[in-house]
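User: Can you recover a sequence for this backbone? Please restate the input before giving your answer.

Assistant: Of course. Working from this structure:
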């Protein structure tokens, strides 16, 4: 076996006789000659990566935030169905509060989910104690959402 001279040669050697999709456009790179995808033109590199990145805490934070958003979303859908069936009277102050609390809760949780996903890689690179603290903050946010709903809406 000959030793490749460059990174591009290593990439070509790796793809010789092997099906592998371009990470950008999913084009099959089998027997690629060069270091660019022939379909989308993106430059390709061969890298060493962990087989299964430790993402348990990241997923736990996402689940915690999603639980709060899901609860608020389902309650808003419930309210919409009751309005359509004529069983909900929007003039009632308690019912107005029901809508506001769930709409604000849903918006806050949805923004937090977006921020969590946007910063996923940065969070993954933080020390475990920082990740754990962030996950606990996500759980506290969802718990606060539930407590506020329980206290304010009767």
């Amino acid at each position: 076996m000959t030793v490749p001279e460059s990174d591009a040669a290593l990439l070509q050697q790796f793809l010789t006789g092997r099906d592998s999709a371009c990470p950008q456009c999913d084009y099959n790179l089998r027997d690629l000659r060069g270091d660019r995808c022939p379909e989308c033109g993106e430059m390709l590199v061969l890298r060493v990566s962990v087989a299964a990145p430790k993402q348990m805490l990241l997923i736990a934070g996402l689940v915690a935030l999603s639980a709060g958003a899901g609860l608020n979303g389902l309650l808003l859908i419930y309210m919409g169905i009751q309005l359509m069936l004529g069983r909900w009277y929007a003039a009632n102050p308690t019912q107005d509060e029901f809508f506001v609390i769930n709409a604000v809760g849903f918006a806050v949780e949805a923004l937090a989910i977006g921020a969590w996903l946007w910063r996923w890689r940065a969070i993954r690179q933080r020390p475990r104690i920082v990740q754990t603290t962030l996950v606990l903050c996500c759980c506290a946010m969802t718990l606060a959402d539930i407590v506020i709903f329980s206290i304010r809406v009767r």
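That completes the design. The radius of gyration is 25 Å.
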